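Dear V.,

Thank you for sending over the compound details. I've combined the ligand you provided, S-adenosylmethionine, with the protein sequence from our construct and run the structure prediction for the complex. I'm sharing the raw inputs here so there's no ambiguity about protonation or stereochemistry in the SMILES, which I know was a concern on your side last time.
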Amino acid sequence: MASRPEQDIVPAAEPGLKAGDAHYTAYVGPPEQYDFMGATQFRLLCSLGLRRGHRVLDIGCGSLRAGRLLIPYLDPGRYHGIEPNAHLIDAAFDHELGHDIRRIKAPRFAHVDDFSIPFDGRFDMIVAQSIYSHTGTALLARSLTAIAGALAPGGQALVTIIEGGRDHPGDHWVYPGCVTVRPATLRRLAADAGLGCERLAWFHPRQTWYRLTGPEGRRLSWRDRRHLSGAVLGDPTLSLSHRPLARALARLRPWAARRLPDGLKRALKRR
Ligand SMILES: C[S@@+](CC[C@H](N)C(=O)[O-])C[C@H]1O[C@@H](n2cnc3c(N)ncnc32)[C@H](O)[C@@H]1O
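Below is the predicted structure of the protein with S-adenosylmethionine bound, written out as structure tokens.
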């Protein structure tokens, strides 16, 4: 897995940075959404019942977009992050969290890149945000098997994929480019690993959230689902979050671009 030298990570956000650039706010995604992408993960976990005593694992925790909210919230020793690029975590403590919190909250980190979960004990919540948008299906399958072995009874894993009509075969890591996964493939691989798998309507600007549960886990009811939208009011850049129909149409756009004849596309554009 590619890692970047530590000196590449410069301290202050610069105008013109784009996703994938060598800055801790950009390497993990669009820098202008560094705050939002952390907050939306934190809100999703809290909406699904996260409490301070839960054990949490953040697979590919990067520069702690979610971790900088989870670490202060959780009791000491409860936050666990896996991240091969250790310098991203260091940058988050240097520029976002400060170093005292490492002593106070004792977050734990592992720097493996083989999708194993090298921590003892089981987890109430596992999050893997924008990880399987970069893995071939063999790597995805390996990670789901590890998740199945690490979930506590009743635990939940929240993962994102870019849904598409094609899978990306193989076991390599694609970055900063992205790969798609067919929803049916995710469901099949989750079932092979012994995990229940359900799609969530929680807003994500580019990907789709899924919830995975072990054999003792229960699916969400439609009553539960009413409380899970992830919508953000008043922010024009996130306006699709509270317009489910427009969101569904936006999701169809790449499919339509591939399948519809040019004449029909032009006619639809004129409308
Ligand atoms: C798109 S970023 C997402 C980071 C984080 N989940 C977030 O939402 O901010 C993908 C992260 O996966 C990390 N990564 C790369 N190879 C990995 C591996 N083999 N296992 C786990 N994480 C990996 C990258 O270093 C990067 O921090």
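A first observation: The radius of gyration is 19 Å.

Warm regards,
I. M.
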